[in-house]
Write a structure and sequence with these properties.
Layout: H1 4-57, H2 59-64, E1 86-90, E2 103-105, E3 108-110, E4 113-115, E5 118-121, E6 127-129, E7 134-142, E8 147-154, E9 158-165, E10 167-168, E11 175-176, E12 181-184, E13 195-202, E14 205-207, E15 213-214, E16 219-220, E17 224-228, H3 232-243, H4 253-257, H5 259-267, E18 284-286, H6 293-300, H7 304-311, E19 324-326
Antiparallel strand pairs: 1-17, 2-5, 3-4, 5-13, 6-12, 7-8, 7-11, 8-9, 9-13, 10-12, 13-14, 15-16, 18-19
Length: 328
């Protein structure tokens, strides 16, 4: 027989088993829930840290452009729907992209669509240079449009685009200085003749380059360009009238490549004044650690004077690692 004491012990045991089972079930349910809550709280922190890491890696470049370029992205640009009411762009420390003084097509409406840059007459093989110092963001080819083109972000907040080139001399991510060769003139992509399509963009919106560059005078329009939304269209039309295309054709080779260079070509017995420059006759040297103009001249068998003439340098110029030097 089972006594009263035994029955009490059995009941206590059953109650203990129930408590243990309930506790175990509660723990199994609660732990995943708590873990999910922890992940939910942590996720925004992770995203913030990712942004912080991006900023810290690129903080020098970001500060240099006064927060115009917020982070590095390999797309055409960080677009905005509308520019600020007014802003100022520093135009100092520039280099003309080409010595050509001839505009063949203006900025603005053309053939039922917007032409977002200037077309400047250059010949196949002519040197194209970076307008300001900055960072190369895109080096690509677009058969139905820009052909071989380069996009450079500059420290003044602008992006410049150089299109229809026959050859690109830089790579994405390269740091370039104002005046450094970035490509050769050409006729690639949607183009009916050799020329340079040149764009100036601010926050993704194309601005008329004639507001900033006077190719006929081979100079910028001032130390600064001040944009005003209310007067921009009027200012752009006036810039095209003053510094844009004149007539149709009729330009001379010296207007395109510069009087001094045209005279040198005329005096040279191994060079012809032709409408198209033979690209195969131009050769380039990429500077490595420890090289100078004098060591390059010995390596390539060309005089220092000739290197200076071909690259617009002086004998005291210190070349940089990665710099492209033309030697023929």
């Amino acid at each position: 027989m089972t006594g009263p004491n035994n029955r009490l012990r059995i009941m206590d045991l059953k109650n203990s088993i129930k408590k243990i089972a309930f506790t175990t079930l509660f723990v199994c349910v609660a732990v995943p829930t708590m873990a999910q809550d922890l992940l939910a709280r942590q996720a925004p922190v992770d995203r913030k840290m990712k942004v912080a890491d991006t900023i810290s890696m690129d903080i020098n470049y970001t500060l240099a452009v006064e927060e115009t370029i917020e982070e590095w992205q390999n797309t055409f640009t960080r677009h905005t729907k509308q520019l600020p009411e007014s802003f100022k762009i520093d135009l100092t420390h520039f280099c003309m992209p080409t010595p050509s003084r001839v505009i063949t097509s203006n900025f603005g409406a053309r053939w039922g669509r917007m032409h977002k840059g200037l077309d400047i007459k250059v010949y196949v093989g002519d040197t194209i240079r970076s307008a300001w110092s900055g960072k190369v963001r895109m080096v690509k080819y677009e058969a139905a449009g820009y052909g071989k083109y380069v996009v450079i972000q500059h420290y003044n907040g602008l992006e410049t685009i150089y299109a229809h080139m026959s050859k690109q001399l830089v790579r994405e991510g390269d740091n370039v200085r104002a005046g450094e060769p970035i490509g050769l003139g050409g006729n690639t992509g949607r183009s009916t003749g050799s020329h340079l399509h040149f764009e100036t963009r601010y926050k993704g919106i194309a601005l008329n380059p004639a507001l900033m560059f006077d190719f006929r005078a081979q100079d910028v329009t001032g130390d600064y360009y001040v944009y005003n939304r209310s007067t921009y269209n009027r200012d752009s039309n006036e810039a095209s009238r003053l510094r844009g295309k004149i007539g149709n054709g009729g330009y001379t080779r010296s207007e395109v490549i510069g009087t001094a260079r045209a005279a040198q070509e005329a005096r040279s017995t191994n060079r012809t004044v032709a409408q198209n420059v033979d690209n195969s006759s131009k050769q380039y040297h990429k500077v490595v650690q420890g090289e100078t103009l004098y060591s390059i001249s010995r390596t390539r068998g060309v005089s220092v004077d000739e290197l200076c003439r071909l690259n617009g340098l002086s004998k005291t110029t210190k070349v940089r690692v990665g710099q492209i030097i033309r030697y023929s």
